[in-house]
Amino acid sequence: MDDTPEKIGKFAPGTGIPIVSREELSFNPPDYLLILPWNFKDEIIASTLGTYGGKKFIIPIPEFKLIEGTNVC
Question: Strand 33-34 to strand 56-59: parallel, antiparallel, or no bridges (unpaired)?
Answer without folding.
Answer: parallel
